[in-house]
Design goal:
- The complex is a heterodimer of chains A (198) and B (258).
- By secondary structure, chain A is an alpha/beta fold.
- Chain A has one domain: Rossmann fold.
- In chain A, 25% of the residues lie in helices and 30% in strands.
- Chain A contains 6 helices and 14 strands.
- The radius of gyration of chain A is 15 Å and the shape is globular.
- In chain B, 36% of the residues lie in helices and 27% in strands.
- In chain B, helix 1 runs parallel beside helix 3 and helix 9 crosses helix 11.
- The radius of gyration of chain B is 17 Å and the shape is globular.
- The chains are: A alpha/beta (198), B alpha/beta (258).
- At the A-B interface, helix 1, strand 8, strand 10 and helix 6 of A face helix 3, helix 4 and helix 6 of B.
């Protein structure tokens, strides 16, 4: 099993690699289209803003590579947001692998943005990623933008309003939270992705 | 619903965890990795590692231990102390820290906060504020608090600084109420309430925790998003699992036991 972590310049690259290593998986970190295309599993991590994130993928010429992948792809946090058509953050066009637009979370009374901390998942669709992860499982989020709930949402969470916490359509999936920092449930999601695919 | 977070703070000096009272008289508590795993196992939601000598000594954080901790931990952690440039922050984040916290370097050069936010996103950028009430009744910030010999009182009002750092791109604020720190008589609720009224990003209460009721007060009365403590956890006078059970029984949303 060849697992490739896309070297997208995100600051959580190391954390995701260590989380996989704790599962006994030794990922290859690469920005090379040929290496990524040949992988069995591809993970697109990412922390930061959408525009520099997309700029980095374009710079490495990875946009066509990621669009043409025929193996399971998991985006994490910003990596998930980049899977959508566009993001309100910097008004940027993204990969377009999932329909929809990522929007800024709106602060309200008693509701802080960024959404930071442990929040509950509400599974609402069928996905191998959620195997063994119960309704109400708490996972760690840190983000100020989010994708609305739609037909590809397989687990939602709520901060003022419901948003997509885990999405999947075919071989493309994303987690808005940080599985690498979400204790046992996060490890379970990563293990599901590696072992079961999409 | 978002949980209120419990955050043990580990003061790091020379590769070990230490604890002092009112920032003085440090005693060695143990190895960084041992304490990190102990708190993770006890149910900590996040950890803060504070290199207490980096900033006064004018050096950056040693990233070797940051990487060792990142390999071990499966909960988030923040590194504070001695981060005064984008390059230093990048080294710490790439070593595996989830957030960086800046304090004195942001007071010396406030643009640092916006540079970090632009580079890594606001969610990575924590601003730590050491604050003390002056004789005229105003809360004002202190710099170089890691070293009592060098600690400086600044003319900057705490509430003004809270507004300024948010405008610059702070994604979270840790308010350390120095008058209460290390003496275990409770968080400074009055000051936390005043800061909360100006703080639209997550607010972490720090300084003064002595018992479970103090944590509850920070959440219930000051609407803090998280509460940070050191000595009560190190000494074992507050156990995180029991603390969370108490908070839960009061209707405060906390993370379930693993």
């Amino acid at each position: 099993m060849k697992v490739v972590l896309v070297d997208s310049g995100g600051a959580n690259l190391g954390s995701v690699r260590y989380a996989l290593e704790r599962l006994g998986v030794a990922p290859v970190v690469s920005g090379d289209p040929a290496v990524i295309s040949a992988a069995d599993r591809v993970i697109l991590p990412g922390v930061g803003a959408a525009a520099p994130g997309m700029a980095r993928l374009r710079e490495l010429d990875l946009v066509p590579t990621l669009r043409a992948l025929d193996k399971p792809l998991l985006g994490i946090c910003l990596g998930m947001q980049l899977l959508f058509e566009s993001s309100e953050e910097g008004e940027v066009d993204c990969l377009g692998l999932l329909p929809g637009r990522v929007r800024r979370m709106r602060p309200a009374a008693g509701l802080r943005v960024p959404h930071m901390g442990w929040n509950r998942l509400a599974p609402c669709g069928d996905s191998p990623l959620l195997d063994g992860i119960p309704d109400g499982a708490q996972v760690y989020f840190v983000h100020g933008y989010a994708a609305p709930v739609d037909a590809n949402t397989v687990a939602s969470s709520e901060h003022g309003e419901a948003f997509s916490a885990v999405v999947q359509r075919g071989r493309v999936a994303g987690a808005q939270f940080h599985p690498e920092r979400s204790a046992a449930f996060g490890a379970r999601l990563l293990a599901n992705f590696i072992q079961r695919g999409l | 619903m978002l949980s209120r977070r419990i955050i043990p703070c580990l003061d790091v000096r020379d590769g070990q965890v230490v604890k002092g009272v009112r920032f003085r008289d440090h005693v060695v508590m143990g190895a960084i990795e041992d304490l990190a795993l102990r708190y993770r196992d006890e149910g900590a939601d996040e950890l803060v590692f504070y290199d207490i000598t980096a900033s006064p000594q004018g050096r950056g954080v040693d990233v070797a231990w940051v990487e060792r901790v990142a390999r071990l931990l499966d909960i988030p952690f923040c590194v504070a102390g001695g981060i005064r440039s984008v390059a230093q922050a990048r080294a710490v984040l790439h070593a595996g820290a989830d957030k960086v916290s800046v304090n004195t370097p942001a007071l010396d050069r406030p643009e640092l906060v916006s540079e970090l936010a632009a580079e890594f996103g606001v969610q990575c950028v924590v601003v730590g504020i050491d604050s003390l009430r002056d004789a005229d009744g105003e809360w004002r910030v202190r710099a170089y608090t890691g070293d009592p010999e060098r600690t400086r009182a600044l003319p900057r009002r705490t509430l003004d600084w809270v507004e300024e750092v948010q405008a610059l791109g702070a994604g979270e604020i840790v308010l350390n109420c120095m008058g209460a720190d290390g003496v275990r008589s409770g968080y400074d609720i009055e000051q936390l309430q005043a800061v909360r009224a100006h703080c639209r990003v997550p607010l972490v209460a720090s300084g003064g925790a002595g018992e479970a009721a103090h944590f509850a007060a920070a959440f219930e009365q000051a609407d803090a998003d998280a509460a940070l403590a050191a000595s009560v956890f190190h000494a074992g006078t507050v156990r995180i699992r029991e603390l969370k059970a108490t908070l839960r029984s009061r209707g405060i949303e906390v993370r379930d036991d693993a």
